């Protein structure tokens, strides 16, 4: 097959690998009111769907990272897309809550490898001057998935139901799988691969020029920040459409649009923050700024609920999308600067496992709180406390760097 340089085709594959796993969960979130009514479940049970998904993703990242180091890019990418296809197809099967729970669990395991294998592909196939910029684009795959699901699932659900929509969405990972086979076979490895990349700028964590495969304290600190931020991110993402529908009387489609807008802003933010990181910006300083902005978004959510003023809700959505959704880019950029390709999958797995652990805790916790007398008010206050902890951790990292 004719060899080609790293270009739009490879970038599309990387973006798709990161985004295809969460597609089912975002689609369910966008149609949450209909699913809750159809299955006869409560908000906490609906939150358990997201918790199951992200718990499986966390488990996969924590246990399969080193296994992924020993398998080919094409093999891992094939597993990702086939598992995502199976999850969507299973969700489309007429069944009860348990079937849907299994489907989201499978979609969670589909998120076990994407960060590690796509980071390794960047190191081994993409020139150094492009890498950090490409991180922002490929990490925005999650928000592209959120955008696509939030716009299409509610509209198609009105025509063919939410199960039919999930089944139809199987075409997305299958198409990406074909593109992956064509692209990875045509884009060669760089001449020097599986070597330690040089740090492109100042190290975001003081004293860490290279993070060893054993995973230094810096890796665990990044994982801890990812966990805390992940709690706030998915507590917001999963219940944002439901909050808009119930508390501000939005329609089902308009409620889904809130998540879509967050996705659009998130895509732009991740690309933008990657460019900031490429200029050598300190990781902890940027994490502190993002946590502070996320806290502002929580205040806006509380204000929108108290005043029933829609513009304040949209403001909160923009703040959420531009800050909390951009954290993974900073975390992955730090790893890309510091980790050799031979151990990239396992090191990325540790940090990603931290994020997914937070993703698993957030929806279930938010669902329990929303179902309680405290409702969304107590839920947003709790999310605010989480972001305060993020601020504290970022401040500790800044002090250590100085």
From TrEMBL:
Gene3D superfamilies linked: MFS general substrate transporter like domains
Domain spans labelled Major facilitator superfamily (MFS) profile: 5-402
Membrane-spanning segments: 44-62, 74-91, 166-184, 217-240, 252-273, 285-306, 312-336, 348-370, 376-398
InterPro entries: MFS (IPR011701), MFS_dom (IPR020846), MFS_trans_sf (IPR036259), Sugar_transport-like (IPR052528)
Compartments, as annotated in UniProt: Cell membrane
Source organism superkingdom: Bacteria
Keywords tagged on the record: Membrane, Transmembrane, Transmembrane helix
Keyword Nuclease among UniProt keywords: no
Pfam families for this protein: MFS_1 (PF07690)
UniProt topology in membrane: Multi-pass membrane protein
Protein's UniProt name: MFS family permease
Origin species: Nesterenkonia lutea
């Amino acid at each position: 097959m004719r060899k080609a340089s790293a270009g739009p085709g490879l970038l599309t594959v990387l973006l798709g690998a990161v985004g295809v796993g969460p597609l089912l969960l975002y689609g369910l979130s966008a149609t949450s009111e209909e699913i809750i009514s159809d299955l006869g479940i409560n908000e906490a049970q609906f939150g358990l769907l997201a918790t199951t998904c992200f718990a499986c993703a966390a488990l996969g990242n924590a246990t399969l990272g080193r296994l992924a180091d020993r398998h080919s890019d094409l093999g891992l990418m094939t597993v990702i897309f086939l598992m995502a296809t199976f999850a969507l197809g299973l969700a489309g099967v007429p069944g009860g809550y348990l079937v849907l729970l299994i489907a989201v669990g499978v979609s969670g395991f589909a998120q076990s490898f994407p960060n590690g294998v796509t980071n390794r592909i960047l190191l081994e196939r993409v020139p150094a001057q492009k890498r950090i910029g490409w991180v922002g684009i490929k990490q925005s795959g999650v928000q592209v998935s959120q955008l696509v699901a939030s716009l299409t699932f509610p509209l198609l659900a009105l025509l063919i139901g939410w199960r039919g929509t999930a089944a139809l969405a199987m075409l997305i990972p299958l198409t990406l799988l074909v593109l992956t086979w064509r692209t990875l076979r045509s884009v060669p490895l760089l001449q020097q691969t599986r070597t330690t990349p040089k740090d492109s700028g100042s190290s975001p964590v003081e004293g860490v020029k290279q993070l060893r495969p054993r995973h230094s304290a810096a890796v665990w600190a990044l994982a801890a920040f990812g966990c805390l931020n992940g709690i706030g991110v998915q507590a917001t993402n999963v219940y944002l459409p439901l909050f808009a529908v119930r508390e501000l009387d939005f329609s089902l489609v308009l409620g889904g649009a809130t998540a879509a807008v967050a996705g659009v802003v998130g895509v732009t933010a991740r690309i933008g923050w990657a460019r900031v990181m490429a200029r050598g910006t300190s990781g902890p300083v940027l994490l502190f700024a993002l946590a502070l902005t996320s806290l502002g978004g929580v205040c806006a959510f509380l204000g929108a609920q108290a005043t029933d003023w829609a513009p304040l809700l949209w403001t909160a959505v923009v703040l959420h999308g531009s800050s909390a959704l951009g954290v993974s880019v900073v975390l992955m950029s730090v790893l890309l600067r510091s980790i050799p390709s031979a151990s990239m999958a396992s090191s990325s797995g540790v940090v990603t496992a931290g994020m997914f652990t937070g993703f698993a805790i957030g929806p279930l916790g938010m669902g329990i709180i929303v179902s309680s007398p405290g409702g969304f008010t107590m839920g947003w206050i709790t999310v605010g406390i989480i972001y305060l902890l993020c601020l504290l951790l970022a401040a500790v990292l800044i002090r250590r760097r100085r």
